[in-house]
Here is the input.
Amino acid sequence: MSAASAAVAGRSAGAGARKPRRRGAGWLGFTPFAAYTLVFMAVPTVLAVWGGVTAEDGSFTLANFSAFGDRSILKAFENSIVLSLAVAVASAILGAILCVMLLAAKPNGILRVVVDAASSVLAQFGGVMLAFAFIATMGSSGMFTLWLQSTFHVDLNSLAPDKTAGPLLYQPAGMFFPYLYFSIPLMIIAFMPAVEGLRPQWGEAVATLGGGRFSYWRHVGAPVLAPSFFGAMILIFASAFSSFATAAALTNSGILIPVVMQQDLSSETASGVTNIPGVLAIGMIVIMAIVMWAYSVLQRRAARWQR
Here is the structure.
């Protein structure tokens, strides 16, 4: 046996004699996240589903699903879906435009740092604080409302679809603006990495072949970014659909399904039906499951261009 063969055989024997690496310690860092997911996501989901398919005596029943025959509940689902879809589309378009514009800024420049920091903060800015800010701005006596009246003699509340339901801000059409406030920053956070993944060589190749900027975005940029764009849009839809704090701070009426669930937790409103919040939770879980499945499919497609 040659010296080289002996050396290779020695290394192989040494590698085979190595003890398997311990992986148990590595899972310890995952424990807090696993515990958080179990306590605040898995357990509430199981309890909600169980409550939706059980009667007051704890027996299994499907009679609770008759709550979906209530017109007010169906209307709340419709309002939530339409509002979330409108917010997702508008936020995706505006956020994508901002992301493309930020490509001209230095990655470590002051503009990028400010935008990234502001997006991280504003994407989590919701609830009572956001509701108060928009009440002070777009409410019946808000600054913007009064300015429109005094300057252009336009009553903002006259634009409300339902004149009998109160000011515009307290209706789904008016809630579009507060939802947009935290959804655009979320779009920037979710979509900016995909935009940064566009390689300069692709633009140079298009220019070498005689194409212009329009050809680049039509044949290269848009197809590459499409999965990430629609994936981020789906993520925003899920965020808006499940948002509760802002809607609850703006209205007490059951015009959105999270508010209806909160009301039904304290008072059953549909006669002859028990565990309404559990049934509504099942409906939301089904919608969210479909949304997140579509998001995962698009993310897998987008990952092909990020390798």
Remarks:
- The domain at 62-303 is CATH 1.10.3720.10 (MetI-like fold).
- The chain has twelve helices and no strands.
- Residues 71-102 form the longest helix (32 residues).
